[in-house]
Amino acid sequence: MRKIADKETEKKDKNAPVQFRSGQVSVSVFQNERTVTRNKKEIDVIMYSIQVQKSYKDDKGKWQNTNSFNVDEIHALQTHLQQAFEYCLEARKKLNKEKYGDEAESNEDE
Fold first, then answer.
1. Each residue of 15-64: pLDDT tens digit?
2. What are the CA-CA distances from residue 66 to residues 21, 61, 80, 98 (Å)?
3. Is residue 63 within 8 Å of residue 56, measured between CB atoms?
4. Least packed by Cβ within 10 Å: which of 28, 37, 77, 89?
């Protein structure tokens, strides 16, 4: 059961990204709810976006972010992108099952 007092906290946590990180390389998955028009009907959909970045300290010791990677970081980036992709697929599958029940699983195999 949800507590009404926790509703705002739940909303903030829901918007927090899921992160996959090793060293300075991180991949974040953001979930956004949107209303889109399809076949002249408005429907609510969940969209996922992925952000990649590397953290580093500049000459003054201040933390900065970049989306440039050196060759030694590509394997970590590739691994985390795969993890993010799998997370999105599982999250979509879970949402579809909640929305459509067992029917969603049988449709995914087609």
1. 799 999 999 999 999 999 888 888 999 988 889 999 999 999 999 999 99
2. 14, 15, 16, 37
3. yes
4. 37
Beta strand residue intervals within 1-110, DSSP E = 18-22, 25-38, 41-57, 63-66
Tokens of residue 17, six digits = 């990204």
Q: Are 29 and 88 in contact (CB under 8 A)?
A: yes
Largest Cα span, the chain: 57
**At residue 110, does pLDDT exceed 60?**
no
DSSP H or E run through 4 = none
Q: Which amino acid is at 109?
A: D
Separation between Cα atoms, residue 54 and residue 61, nearest integer Å: 15
